[in-house]
Amino acid sequence: MKQHLDTELGRVKKVKPAPVAVVVQESFMQFIDRFVEEGRAGRRLNAKSSHYSPYTLADYLKLKRLLENFSDATAQPIDYPAYSLDFYNAFKGWLTGRGLTLNYVGSLMKNLKMMLKQAHADRLHTNTIFQHKDFKKFSEEVDSIYLTETDLTRLYNLKLTDTPSLDKAWDLFLIGCYTGLRFSDFMHLRPENIKGRILTAPADRRNTLKTSEPGFRT
Fold first, then answer.
1. Helices (H), strands (E): how many in the chain?
2. 17 vs 161, more confident
3. How far is residue 24's CA from residue 22's CA, in Å, rounded to a whole number?
């Protein structure tokens, strides 16, 4: 009877709207974590379709930590809409104020640009500030201090056998100079890795050693 009365009187039954599912968008910091995880697993490749080096992925995590520290120190947001030329200049000033060199800060800006570009490609945001000509990596000329071949030869000819601790440090330093390996890599070398004039990577480091380093062959 109620249904007939509603029809005769033109009453329209209210229909409850369907509940709207709330989609939680991945934040920029969460994206960086996921990007690094996928890079380590080989699910993300670089522009040359090669695996990202552990050092590159570690640099992305350093960028994330510095962005979080910057946000804590300045109360500035660090999610996608926050990035602008004003943010770029403020972040740059904060980094250089911490004593970081312009070349290192420039590398951080390059990585920030890269991460924003990758997140944009994943359709996580629409902020295209990373395409602006002034949102860029920068560098400065530096006076590189290095040892010449003559300097290395003089070191090589030193006799430090009476001071074992210095003798070991001398060996390691010369290995680093002549191979071009990073400290974290040549410290893992063992006698079995030296075969004549060729170095072979330790078994636990073969995925991290850069074989293109000067003087390094596998």
1. 8, 2
2. 161
3. 6
